[in-house]
Amino acid sequence: MATSVSASAFLGSWGSSVAGEDHAMLHAKAAPAQVRMARPVRAQPMMKNVNEGKGVFAPLVVVTRNIIGKKRFNQLRGKAIALHSQVITEFCKSIGADAKQRQGLIRLAKKNGERLGFLA
Asked: Name one GO cellular component term (predicted).
């Protein structure tokens, strides 16, 4: 099998190959352009408290949520959490704690709230 190589073949074109086919044609034959695969259907993750229904204050929290409604309850809970975070921030400023320590205290407060049932 002999192939001829001309000077024009090296001026930016790889047009001739061993079989005499164009390089683009070889690439097109080698692999399909696109293979579509169906995505697996995933269920939406549930954000749920692992301690739901547990803790000293959980029954009080559940009764309050049922009385005033879920929307209003979540608004009040958000305000309470924001206020508590501000208190922690002011405390950290007064003792000279850095941002990393402040964030650690806020995380600790959240864990304690979960254990006590405030996030039920």
From this structure: chloroplast
